[in-house]
Specification:
By secondary structure, the protein is of the alpha/beta class. The protein has one domain (3-126): 3-Layer(aba) Sandwich (Rossmann fold). Helices cover 41% and strands 18% of the residues. It contains six helices and five strands; from the N terminus they run βαβαβαβαβαα. It has helices at 15-27, 47-57, 73-79, 92-108, 129-137, 148-158, and strands spanning 3-8, 30-35, 64-68, 84-89, 114-119. The strands form two sheets. The protein has a three-stranded parallel sheet. It has a two-stranded parallel ribbon with strand order 4-5. The radius of gyration is 16 Å and the shape is globular. The structure holds 4'-phosphopantetheine. Residues 7-9, 36-38, 41, 72-73, 101, 104-105 line the site of 4'-phosphopantetheine (PNS).
Protein backbone atom coordinates (compact mmCIF):
# COMPACT_ATOMS: atom_id res chain seq x y z
CA UNK A 1 0.00 0.00 0.00
CA UNK A 2 1.38 3.41 -1.00
CA UNK A 3 1.13 5.72 2.02
CA UNK A 4 2.04 9.39 2.44
CA UNK A 5 1.90 12.07 5.11
CA UNK A 6 0.89 15.65 4.42
CA UNK A 7 2.24 17.56 7.45
CA UNK A 8 1.62 21.17 8.36
CA UNK A 9 0.29 23.70 10.82
CA UNK A 10 -3.08 23.97 9.04
CA UNK A 11 -3.91 27.03 11.14
CA UNK A 12 -6.42 26.92 9.57
CA UNK A 13 -6.79 24.87 6.40
CA UNK A 14 -7.20 26.90 3.21
CA UNK A 15 -8.49 26.00 -0.26
CA UNK A 16 -4.80 25.77 -1.24
CA UNK A 17 -4.23 22.96 1.30
CA UNK A 18 -7.45 21.28 0.18
CA UNK A 19 -6.27 21.31 -3.41
CA UNK A 20 -3.05 19.54 -2.39
CA UNK A 21 -5.01 17.03 -0.25
CA UNK A 22 -7.32 16.12 -3.14
CA UNK A 23 -4.49 15.68 -5.61
CA UNK A 24 -2.23 13.74 -3.21
CA UNK A 25 -5.11 11.44 -2.21
CA UNK A 26 -5.51 10.54 -5.88
CA UNK A 27 -1.85 9.52 -6.09
CA UNK A 28 -1.54 7.53 -2.83
CA UNK A 29 -3.64 4.69 -1.39
CA UNK A 30 -3.64 6.33 2.01
CA UNK A 31 -2.91 9.96 2.91
CA UNK A 32 -2.54 11.13 6.50
CA UNK A 33 -2.89 14.84 7.12
CA UNK A 34 -0.75 15.47 10.15
CA UNK A 35 -1.09 18.51 12.39
CA UNK A 36 2.37 19.25 13.75
CA UNK A 37 3.96 22.00 15.80
CA UNK A 38 5.82 24.69 13.88
CA UNK A 39 8.06 26.30 16.49
CA UNK A 40 8.21 29.46 14.37
CA UNK A 41 4.45 30.08 14.64
CA UNK A 42 1.91 30.85 17.36
CA UNK A 43 -1.33 29.14 16.33
CA UNK A 44 -4.77 30.75 16.41
CA UNK A 45 -6.51 27.37 16.71
CA UNK A 46 -5.63 24.59 19.16
CA UNK A 47 -4.32 21.35 17.67
CA UNK A 48 -7.62 19.73 18.62
CA UNK A 49 -9.63 22.39 16.77
CA UNK A 50 -7.43 22.03 13.69
CA UNK A 51 -7.88 18.26 13.70
CA UNK A 52 -11.68 18.63 13.94
CA UNK A 53 -11.71 21.12 11.04
CA UNK A 54 -9.57 18.78 8.92
CA UNK A 55 -11.80 15.81 9.74
CA UNK A 56 -14.87 17.78 8.67
CA UNK A 57 -13.44 18.97 5.33
CA UNK A 58 -12.12 15.50 4.43
CA UNK A 59 -15.10 13.46 5.64
CA UNK A 60 -15.99 12.44 2.06
CA UNK A 61 -12.44 11.33 1.20
CA UNK A 62 -12.25 7.66 2.22
CA UNK A 63 -8.47 7.26 1.92
CA UNK A 64 -7.64 10.41 3.91
CA UNK A 65 -6.93 10.20 7.65
CA UNK A 66 -6.21 13.04 10.06
CA UNK A 67 -3.66 12.89 12.85
CA UNK A 68 -1.82 15.08 15.29
CA UNK A 69 1.67 14.67 16.72
CA UNK A 70 3.72 16.77 19.11
CA UNK A 71 7.21 15.85 18.01
CA UNK A 72 9.47 15.36 15.04
CA UNK A 73 7.92 14.38 11.72
CA UNK A 74 10.62 11.72 11.24
CA UNK A 75 9.65 10.04 14.52
CA UNK A 76 5.98 9.88 13.49
CA UNK A 77 6.95 8.53 10.07
CA UNK A 78 9.17 5.81 11.54
CA UNK A 79 6.52 4.75 14.08
CA UNK A 80 3.87 4.54 11.35
CA UNK A 81 6.07 3.08 8.62
CA UNK A 82 5.52 5.94 6.17
CA UNK A 83 8.29 6.97 3.76
CA UNK A 84 6.81 9.82 1.72
CA UNK A 85 6.02 13.37 2.80
CA UNK A 86 3.88 15.65 0.65
CA UNK A 87 4.35 19.41 0.65
CA UNK A 88 2.84 22.10 -1.55
CA UNK A 89 5.09 24.60 -3.31
CA UNK A 90 3.50 27.94 -4.10
CA UNK A 91 6.38 30.05 -5.33
CA UNK A 92 10.13 30.37 -5.27
CA UNK A 93 9.82 32.04 -1.86
CA UNK A 94 8.72 28.69 -0.37
CA UNK A 95 11.62 26.84 -1.93
CA UNK A 96 14.51 27.58 0.39
CA UNK A 97 12.65 26.61 3.56
CA UNK A 98 11.09 23.54 1.93
CA UNK A 99 14.41 22.34 0.53
CA UNK A 100 16.12 22.74 3.89
CA UNK A 101 13.32 20.88 5.69
CA UNK A 102 13.21 18.07 3.12
CA UNK A 103 16.99 17.58 3.29
CA UNK A 104 16.93 17.66 7.10
CA UNK A 105 14.18 15.06 7.24
CA UNK A 106 16.16 12.80 4.88
CA UNK A 107 19.22 13.19 7.05
CA UNK A 108 17.37 12.58 10.34
CA UNK A 109 15.64 9.50 8.89
CA UNK A 110 18.85 8.05 7.42
CA UNK A 111 17.37 8.38 3.97
CA UNK A 112 14.08 6.61 4.64
CA UNK A 113 11.83 9.69 4.44
CA UNK A 114 11.56 11.47 1.10
CA UNK A 115 9.58 14.63 0.30
CA UNK A 116 7.47 14.99 -2.82
CA UNK A 117 6.36 18.49 -3.83
CA UNK A 118 3.10 19.28 -5.56
CA UNK A 119 2.94 22.70 -7.14
CA UNK A 120 -0.06 24.61 -5.87
CA UNK A 121 -2.77 25.26 -8.45
CA UNK A 122 -2.33 28.77 -9.83
CA UNK A 123 -5.59 30.10 -8.40
CA UNK A 124 -4.28 29.36 -4.88
CA UNK A 125 -0.67 30.41 -5.40
CA UNK A 126 -1.26 33.64 -3.46
CA UNK A 127 -3.00 32.00 -0.53
CA UNK A 128 -1.58 31.46 2.95
CA UNK A 129 -3.17 30.82 6.35
CA UNK A 130 -1.29 33.86 7.68
CA UNK A 131 -2.78 36.18 5.05
CA UNK A 132 -6.25 34.73 5.59
CA UNK A 133 -6.01 35.41 9.33
CA UNK A 134 -4.80 38.96 8.72
CA UNK A 135 -7.69 39.72 6.37
CA UNK A 136 -10.19 38.14 8.79
CA UNK A 137 -8.85 40.05 11.77
CA UNK A 138 -9.85 43.28 9.98
CA UNK A 139 -13.24 41.88 9.00
CA UNK A 140 -12.34 41.35 5.34
CA UNK A 141 -13.80 38.84 2.90
CA UNK A 142 -12.16 35.39 3.12
CA UNK A 143 -14.93 33.46 1.36
CA UNK A 144 -12.63 32.61 -1.57
CA UNK A 145 -9.88 31.37 0.76
CA UNK A 146 -11.45 28.92 3.23
CA UNK A 147 -14.68 26.91 3.60
CA UNK A 148 -17.60 28.91 5.07
CA UNK A 149 -17.66 27.21 8.47
CA UNK A 150 -13.91 27.79 8.83
CA UNK A 151 -14.34 31.48 7.94
CA UNK A 152 -16.97 31.73 10.67
CA UNK A 153 -14.64 30.08 13.20
CA UNK A 154 -11.84 32.53 12.33
CA UNK A 155 -14.13 35.56 12.67
CA UNK A 156 -15.31 34.23 16.05
CA UNK A 157 -11.69 33.94 17.23
CA UNK A 158 -11.12 37.59 16.32
CA UNK A 159 -14.47 38.73 17.72
CA UNK A 160 -15.52 39.97 14.28
CA UNK A 161 -19.27 40.07 13.69
CA UNK A 162 -20.18 39.70 10.02
CA UNK A 163 -23.59 40.85 8.84
CA UNK A 164 -25.24 38.37 6.48
CA UNK A 165 -26.40 40.10 3.27
O1 LIG B 1 2.36 24.51 7.59
P1 LIG B 1 3.77 24.76 8.06
O2 LIG B 1 3.79 25.63 9.29
O3 LIG B 1 4.65 25.30 6.96
O4 LIG B 1 4.36 23.31 8.46
C1 LIG B 1 5.66 23.16 8.99
C2 LIG B 1 5.77 21.84 9.76
C3 LIG B 1 4.71 21.80 10.87
C4 LIG B 1 5.55 20.69 8.80
C5 LIG B 1 7.21 21.74 10.36
O5 LIG B 1 7.42 22.81 11.25
C6 LIG B 1 7.44 20.41 11.10
O6 LIG B 1 7.73 19.42 10.48
N1 LIG B 1 7.29 20.44 12.45
C7 LIG B 1 7.45 19.23 13.27
C8 LIG B 1 8.80 19.23 13.97
C9 LIG B 1 9.88 18.74 13.03
O7 LIG B 1 9.88 17.61 12.57
N2 LIG B 1 10.84 19.65 12.75
C10 LIG B 1 11.96 19.38 11.89
C11 LIG B 1 11.79 19.98 10.53
S1 LIG B 1 13.37 20.13 9.81
Amino acid sequence: MKKAIYPGSFDPITFGHLDIIKRASNIFDELTILVLTNVRKTPLFSADERVKILEEVTKDMPNVKVGCFDGLLVDYAKKNDVHVVIRGLRAITDFEYELQTAQTNRLLSQGSLDTMFLTTSLEYAYLSSTTVKEIASFGGDISKCVPDFVAQMIFTKYGVVKNEQ
